[in-house]
Design brief:
Blueprint lengths: L3 E3 L7 H4 L8 E2 L10 H11 L2 E4 L2 H10 L5 E4 L6 H10 L1 H9 L5 E4 L4
Parallel strand pairs: 1-2, 1-3, 3-4, 4-5
Length: about 110
Amino acid sequence: MSPLLFDENLSPHLPRLVADLFAGGLHVRDVGLARADDSAVWEYARTHGLAIVTKDDDFRQRSFLYGSPPKVIWVHLGNCRTADVQALLMARVAGVRAFLDDPTSSLLVLQRSE
């Protein structure tokens, strides 16, 4: 299972908050990519075997264009609190793990169930 790389638009606290479920997670700030463009984040994740967790639609589009690696987990929640993202990842842990382990999948969309 690939470790997670949380994008700039998500809290730098998320890797720690979900570490018991997703070990080895990092935030782009942790690896010197604060304010980096999407290409740099994409390449870093691809090179280091990380899956990008983001709210940025541009990464969703890149996933369509290039496939994986890296895998992309697109958090489709709109404006929300860090606790909402944490709760979503915790609620969908089995699905996220299955996605990360599936060599044919490149994009996972996570959103609230209605």
